[in-house]
Amino acid sequence: MYCVIMAGGSGTRFWPRSREERSxxxxxxxxxxxxxxxxxxxxxxxxxxxxxxxxxxxxxxEELEKHRLDVPTENLIYEPFGKNTAPCIGLSALxxxxxxxxxxxxxxxxxHLIQAKKHFKKTILAGVRLAEEKDGMVTIGIKPxxxxxxxxxxxxxxxxxxxxxMKAFSIKTFAEKPNLxxxxxxxxxxxxxxxxxxxxxxxxxxxxxxxxxxxxLFDGLQEIxxxxxxxxxxxxxxxxxxxxxxxxxxxxxxxxTRHVYLIRGDFGWNDLGSWDQVYKLSQKDGDGNVVVGDAVxxxxxxxxxxxxxGVVAVLGLDDVVVVHEGGATLVCRRDRAEEVKLxxxxxxxxxxxxxx
Amino acid sequence: MYCVIMAGGSGTRFWPRSREERSxxxxxxxxxxxxxxxxxxxxxxxxxxxxxxxxxxxxxxEELEKHRLDVPTENLIYEPFGKNTAPCIGLSALxxxxxxxxxxxxxxxxxHLIQAKKHFKKTILAGVRLAEEKDGMVTIGIKPxxxxxxxxxxxxxxxxxxxxxMKAFSIKTFAEKPNLxxxxxxxxxxxxxxxxxxxxxxxxxxxxxxxxxxxxLFDGLQEIxxxxxxxxxxxxxxxxxxxxxxxxxxxxxxxxTRHVYLIRGDFGWNDLGSWDQVYKLSQKDGDGNVVVGDAVxxxxxxxxxxxxxGVVAVLGLDDVVVVHEGGATLVCRRDRAEEVKLxxxxxxxxxxxxxx
Lengths: 356, 356
Fold this sequence. Notes:
Chain A is an alpha/beta fold. Chain A has 11 helices and 17 strands. Chain A has helices at 35-44, 61-67, 85-99, 117-134, 180-189, 203-213, 215-226, 233-243, 249-254, 275-281, 340-346, and strands spanning 2-7, 52-57, 76-79, 104-109, 113-114, 137-142, 153-159, 168-175, 192-202, 260-265, 269-270, 290-292, 295-298, 304-307, 311-315, 320-325, 328-333.
């Protein structure tokens, strides 16, 4: 069993705390350690450090070095740039394949909040068992708590479990982020789950699926594999990345293959998609505010304030987000926090480059 | 004729740009120079620099030195601390008295916006003429444009003008800041003027009025006068200031004396009482926003943003004020900008001392 922690991300959702070269997983949000470190600790309860890998974009190398804990340097995998999850997992699979062609890979995001750590471990181990038994692609589905329009959904087909005490299903279909009416219907039907972004499979199984459903990517990976350990490896990697399609494992493989299964997860999961979600998950004071760092609040309610330096003062406003870090300040309506990416787009102007 | 520019102020209204040791008059708001420098330039069209004085609190000395233009160092008058306008003008009067006991003093705030500079000069010179002719206390009253609740009002009695082409009146009464209904009544009646805070009088006349209406202050001033130029002057000044009452010239003298007159001023006057007023007087962009410094605005309307360093981004909010300077950030509803002083009060906590 090998864990591959994906640490990509463009650093837009949590701007100005997250930046191009320091995306969400490197932030300390709820715990004393970063989301990345929390994730690594969670998996270190399942596999030894030497069997853990982290895959990220080259430009995040500096941050990653600070947050890798005991993951060996040779297990840090750098993409020249981001091409979504399928190439990222593909590249990682090549590296695991070299050590253990029949190994099982657990591929996981690095920036989610998971509250019930023991239950999480049980779920992942059940997923590993299922991936081995079926020689198929396994995903972890989260029992939805509300009709969220921010997540992708997975509809299950038949109950094939339990596996080590965990509910398991075959899968009928993958659904993109729905509108509210559809999300409500999904919730009511009872057979839809949130797509957690965690995937489990044998390396050999995954590469077979790539060959079938993403032949261009497969050819690219073969090219990379041939040059591993050679002096021109970096150049080949760069070249192949420029040519391969940018596609997610969800759309590229999971939706298309029939060998796909779901283990039900129920471990207090949240993907922390915006400052608003961080607000909602945080402990509030008597005015419904969450204040991190030095701030003065006068007649403010239901707001989130994060300040890393100096002082922030808010007066007479409700339902706002104010975040000040690294010379940049965000002020926004809390219910529009997901649109922070629009700000980051506007920072493409040259004079703002250092705040991207 | 001598001009005494009052440069006190507690630096609360324009926090975080204004601070305890750098109050409003030292800020650059509309022009390329500070409000203080604008004020000095305005009066330098009427009197030579050697006849101009500036009176301020000791703790603003450092800022004042940067903004005094050609006012001679020996004409900078320092109060040990603020005791409102009557003591401040009293101390200045002693110093002018030494040079010219029959001189006429024009006492003026340093932090107001005045748009019609030529008309302003004509008005002041008419005031000087009236003060000499009547040997009385003259104030400049501003024809109100709207029922403001932020200013004191002066009700005129009889037309005694014109004086050098300017309307002049005797005064019936001074009124404190009214509520909106009263302000509307004042505006309708036509015989109420805004109190500009500019006063003109012979030094001898003023000191006589102090003796009559503020005998404690008069005694204190005599004590100070006796020690002028002596080694223990500073100690005496400090002692007297600790004992004299804190009172404005309006309440202490102007309201009480019968020798009081008004020259009508109509020169585009604004006391710049809050960020909201600065917003209202500034040129707006197509969204009704005023942006000074580096900022990114996404779906923001009718807002004021001032940023001296880094970048400020605002998203999805209307009618807000965001000001970032010197490590401090203000975020407030624009129509509550006058309450910024509540924030400054909260900064009395020790850890915030450097942001006061």
